Each structure stands twice: as structure tokens, then as C-alpha cells.
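Notebook, bench 3.
Goal today: get a predicted structure for Membrane-oligosaccharide glycerophosphotransferase from Enterococcus moraviensis ATCC BAA-383 so we can plan the truncation constructs. The sequence was checked against the plasmid map this morning, with no discrepancies at the termini. Length recorded as 612 residues. Pasting the sequence as submitted so the record is complete.
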Amino acid sequence: MGKKLHIFKKKPIKYSLIVVGMIALVFVSNLYLQWCQNELSFDLVFKFAFSWHTEKFILGSFVLLIFLLFLCSLAGSLALGSLLYGITIGILGFADYQKMFYRVEPIYPDDLKMITEFGLLREMIGTIPFIFILLLAVVGIFFFIRAIYQSRLLSKKMQIIRLSGLVVTIGLLMYISNFNNPNNLLRKAYDKTALWIPYSQKMNYYNTGFMGGFLYNLKIEAMDKPENYSKKTIEAITTKYTTAAERPNNSESTEQPNIIFVMSESFSNPQNLAGVTADKDPLKDYFDVAKTTYSGQMLSQNYGGGTANIEFEALTSLSMELFNPQLTTPYTMLIPKMEEMPSIVSLLKEKNYQATAIHPYNTSMYKRKDVYKILGFDQFISEDTMTYKEKLQKNPYISDKSAYNEVLDLLKDDKNPQFVHLVTMQTHMPYSDKYTSKDYSSQSVGNKKAIDSYMQDIAYSSEALKQFTTALKDLKRRTLVVFWGDHLPSIYSDEIKAANEEVQLHETEFLMYDTQDKLSQRNNHDALSSPFYFAPTLFDQSNMEMTGFYQLLSELEQEIPAFEKGFYYKNGQWSKTFNLNKAQQELYEDYRLIQYDIVSGENYSLKTDFFK
């Protein structure tokens, strides 16, 4: 069989037919990727390829051809190289369709790092499709490895031809991987006709094709260098806000309360959306707490996903809006490359806090184990090391109540103040068939079963939060809690989405709770915020010592209370554009310069007391 499969031993086959066959495979596979990207619309696919964007379709096909030739050269077999190519493209297109369906967001190159997260992938796409894809991949890889092993039997002349093809295609793929270099010839070819839309990756992929969008999201610098960036400029900014942050010392500003961050998976209020009502409020227990303290709605970067990015913003107080759009996941693309990253963790560690991260799931998701270490956490408690692991009925995830019990156990140690960062899992998708009985019945346009199950989920979550805040009152040490939902679940029908403004699909609930009820804005229950404001807001309202960095953010929040790419809340209203007055522009520019200095610059600010 091996002899028949080797491309170099198939002399009777006309080489012209081989070339035509490979080109046809590449064109069909590119059409398939575009079909998956365009929600299985053949009409849009053919218009894109042969009417609207033919040049970009051909460029994308050229890249796919190089990838196909690489696999064939590596295997030494046209048939098996093509087989693995077909399986790879098939899985990639399916993954893109699934992500677009659930999160209204395409597959990025960095998403491929999640390929080993078998448990999460199975839960997202279903057991049967997952098993089928896994078996398909295993079969393809088996025969591919077998072909590589058999290729040692090729003649010396054929080995030279094969290795030459391998070297050339590897070189071309490495060159292509540098797509975002302005001197890259492939990028220049795309630029002749491509209209890049960095603020909307969904539209970016639609306008430039799946391949164009995928290439656009290859490696890039986190931020472009601001024109006025210099050591002198950064020193002026750090001095300005550090001076403004100084407060007279008093008993409250020097005390060290426990601080608890709770990022609740997919926690939001479904009845905030037009087209969704319920027979009773699933968030009653949540609002029993929220209406007694500072609370409101948070602007999430994503719909249906993006958990790690919201977590990144909350811990570091850096904004995703300021990054180049290709930097889609800082946890995997940025932080692992850094030796240090200023955050609320590093700040509190300097104040002798014990810092613990808790996530009732595995440690590999989004490289959390590595990220938490760089951020400065003392320990990371996962599903494997938790004491409390109770699950609710058929829910596959550890309950919020168990997670809160884990936090309460930590807080029994009163020797040092503690910072605990909890990322829950109970309310993670899927949302159907979790519970044998449901106490809530929705009136919704489509997907009622999932919405009813989701309401039961958040009702249990609300109950657990209320019990948790009640238990915290028994602690001797003052304890502060920041609770927020990371994003809406991806369960709402197209009809519901169409009935609401886009920003409403990005608004979740948040609150800040103080066991001593001393927050300065505790009577404000209609606040609007972004997650990168959480830490400075908490410090300011609880009268804790402010850093220069938090002072900058506090002043920026007064002018621009919430913003993400495409969503800007300023002067009391939402806008799709970022038109700023002079005061707003100055604060925003100072913030942008500091963030650039940290992630892409010379770290001038880290050599000062700006973050201390």
C-alpha cells in the first residue's frame, strides 16, 4: 500500500492531473472555510469568491496550497498529505462555525492552542460530534505518521526532491507567519484590495475572507508605539498622578481588609433583554444584596465568551480596547512572555497579603497556571485540589456554593489579610438538561428550554452569593467583595438579538460589597463600569491607599465610565465612536501611554512608585 501512496512512485499519473487535483482541493477547501464563516450560506460564499472578493480568495487559496504542499512533502505521499490536509481544514471550518454560532466570533490562530482541552471541547460541541472528530483526527494522524515512516524507503533522488519541497514550504510558511510586518509581500498584496476592520473581527473575516482574517490575527506587537512616547513623558505622567493620589494617613486608609474578587461565569440578568421575561425573578437573591450596596452593570468585551480577557482586565486594570485587535487573548499571547505584570495581585503582595486564585476546573485553561504565577499568586486551587466539590443535580461543574465554601475556609486564617480571586464554573454552558426540575419558566422568542435552565443556574448562583456575603459578616477582619458576570450566555435567538441594541448583549451585573458597609457610593445601584476600573474604584470607595496608576484610572472613570472596542459610554450616552473632549482625550492618552510602556515599551513606569 505504501508503494502505491508515494507520490514519487506514481509515474503513470500525469503530473498535470496532479497539479489540477491539488489546486481543485485547495479551492474547494477555501470555499468550505468561507461557507462555515458565512453561516452555511452558499450564496454568500460564491459571491465572495467569484464576484466581490476574488483577489482575496485567490490569495487565501495560495496560502492553503503552500500548507498542502508542506504536508505532502513531510509525508512523502500525495494521498496521505492530502488526507491530513482535508481533515485539518474540515475540523478548522467546523470549529469556526461553532464559535461563530455560540460567540459570534471567528476562530483565531491563538485558539488553536486550546486543541488539547478535550473536556471543554466535548462540553461545547457535544459528546457525539467530539468523539467523531477525535476519531477522525486519530485516524488521519496514524496514517500520516505511517507515511512519514515509509518515506525512508524512497530513493536518494526522491528524498532530495522531497526534502527540498519541505525546506521551501517551511520557509514560505515562516514568511507568511510574519504577515503583519508592513513589508510582508503577502500583506501588501492583500492591502491592495482589503478593507481591514480591526474593531469588528466578525466583519473583518467577512470582508477579507476566512484566510485573510486568520492571517491578520497572526503574531503582532501588543500595541503600536504612540508618537509622544518617551522616558520624559512617562515620568511626567507618573509624577502627576502619584502626587494626586496622596492622602492624609488615617486608620481607615492604612487598614488591610480582605479583598475577594468573584468572576461569575455567564452571570447576567436575562430580563434586561427585550423578548425575555420570567414568571419570577431568578436574580432575587442577587438583588437583595445588590440593592444594599454599590452595584450596576458592567460592559463586557464579548458576547457568549471571552472570560479570560475580562479576568485580565479586572486583575491588571489594563484595557483590551487599547491593544491591537490581533492581540485577542493576553493570557496566552502576552503575559507568558513577560517577567512581571503590575496588577492588584502584585500591589497587595507588597502589602503582605496572602494571594490565592481559585478556579473549579483544570489548571491549563488559558494557561492560568503560568499566568497566575507571573501575576504573583501564592497558590492556585483547582478542581483537583479543592476540598469542596459538590455539584448540583446533573450539572457537570462544581457548584458556586462549594467554591464559596473554599473561600470561607481560607478566610478562617486571620493572621494576614487575604486577596482571593475566584472564577466560578457552575453557570458555564451547556444550559440544557442540567437540572431535573426547574423553578423558573420564561417567555422568550426561541430557545426556551436553554433559557429556563439558565435561569435556574443563575438563581442557584444568586442564592449562593447571598449566603456567602451573610457568612462574611462573621469575620473579624473587614472584607470587601467585587462580584461580576463575565459575559452573557450564547443562548439567545436571532430574534432576541435583533430586538435589542448590540450593547445590551454586552451588559452584565456587578456589585461591590463591604462587610462594614462603608463604601462611599453604597447607595448607587445604577452604576455603569468596565472591569479594568474595579480595583481603583474599590480602593477609592473603601478609602484605601491609592496608587498613582489607580488615581489615573479613577479620574478617567469620571470622564469615560465604560468603554470597549465599538462601545463607548461618555457624557451620559452610548456611542460607537470615540469622540473625546480635551479633558477626556488627555486622560485617555495618559492611560494609553502607561499601558504601552508596560506591555510593549521600555517599562519606565515600573521603575517608579506609580504602581505602589
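The chain has a mean pLDDT of 91. The chain has 23 helices and 13 strands.
Flagging this for group meeting.
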